[in-house]
């Protein structure tokens, strides 16, 4: 298949997302389009996993992501930066002050005139209020803080802000979800709306509901943000992925959270 698509010989590897996406592309040649998932059929990615992985997520003593939650709590309480303030200095007990916050992100930032996701808001707070160097994107400290904050909303329904300022960004995210990209020429919708429940190289194709991020993926052996997952999918279809923090990724996050409105937040989730 690599030779047919003109890929260099050295790029051929067994069991890669490139090959998996190519197989799916061939399967989709007979699909005349895509239809959005019926809201009545919405399912969390958890329901597509095997019983052992589901049990790992349910039991906090088995869930490896709880190590990141614990580190996030320590960071929440630790003074940082020139201001020598902790997150707790401003927000107090996270169990109370952060309850429901993650369910409402991405949210519009009036100063910047665009939406920010939760990780970006944490970096902004660290820079502005703690006068500290922002935590590096996708770093363990940032993922730990984001996971700890999101964990306070576990079980609450996802509730995207009813903010008209978000409308154009959500529309662009929806367009990106439907746009075919990469050498494999696939869109998010073709996999996660038209083919959910099917299997790709032995793995189930879930619906695109970001109910558990940051999530611990067994494939990664660690935590990762929703942006990391989106970028993995993009490179899997042989498309150039935007850098972490790019507005295109935030807009896609915004649309995905709109699709998942009302579904319970599961952070920290465990995925294959």
What's the CATH architecture of the largest domain?
Answer: Orthogonal Bundle
Helix/strand order: HHHHHHEEHHHHEEEEHHE
Query: How far is the first residue's CA from the last residue's CA?
Result: 26 Å
CATH classification, class level of the largest domain: Mainly Alpha
The number of distinct helices, counting runs of at least 4 residues, comes to 12
Structural class: mainly alpha
Strand content: 5-15%
Count of discrete domains: 2
Description of the structure:
- With 272 residues, the protein is mainly alpha-helical.
- The protein is built from twelve helices and seven strands.
- It has two domains: 158 residues, Cytochrome Bc1 Complex, Chain D, domain 2 (Orthogonal Bundle), CATH 1.10.760; 86 residues, Cytochrome Bc1 Complex, Chain D, domain 2.
- It has a three-stranded mixed sheet with strand order 6-5-7. The chain has a two-stranded antiparallel sheet with strand order 1-2.
- A hairpin with a 4-residue loop joins β1 and β2.
- It is globular, with a radius of gyration of 19 Å.
- It starts with a helix and ends with a strand.
């Amino acid at each position: 298949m690599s030779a047919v698509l003109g890929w260099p010989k050295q790029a051929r590897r067994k069991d890669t997302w490139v090959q998996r996406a190519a197989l799916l592309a061939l399967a989709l040649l007979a699909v005349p389009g895509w239809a959005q998932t019926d809201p009545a059929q919405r399912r969390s990615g958890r329901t597509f996993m095997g019983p052992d992985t589901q049990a790992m997520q349910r039991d906090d003593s088995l869930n490896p992501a709880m190590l990141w939650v614990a580190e996030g709590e320590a960071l929440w309480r630790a003074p940082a930066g020139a201001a020598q303030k902790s997150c707790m200095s401003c927000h107090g007990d996270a169990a109370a002050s952060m309850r429901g916050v993650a369910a409402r992100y991405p949210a519009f930032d009036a100063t910047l005139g665009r939406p920010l996701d939760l990780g970006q808001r944490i970096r902004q707070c660290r820079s502005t209020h703690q006068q500290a160097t922002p935590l590096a994107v996708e770093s363990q400290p940032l993922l730990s803080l984001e996971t700890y904050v999101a964990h306070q909303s576990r079980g609450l329904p996802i509730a995207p802000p009813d903010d008209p300022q978000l409308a154009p960004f959500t529309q662009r995210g929806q367009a990106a979800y439907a746009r075919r990209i990469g050498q494999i020429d696939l869109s998010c919708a073709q996999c996660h709306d038209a083919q959910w429940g099917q299997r790709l190289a032995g793995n189930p194709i879930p619906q695109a509901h970001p109910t558990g991020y940051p999530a611990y993926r067994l494939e990664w052996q660690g935590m990762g943000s929703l942006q990391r997952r989106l970028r993995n999918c993009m490179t899997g279809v042989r498309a150039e992925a935007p850098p972490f923090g790019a507005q295109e990724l935030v807009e896609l996050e915004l649309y995905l959270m709109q699709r998942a409105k009302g579904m319970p937040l599961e952070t920290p989730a465990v995925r294959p």
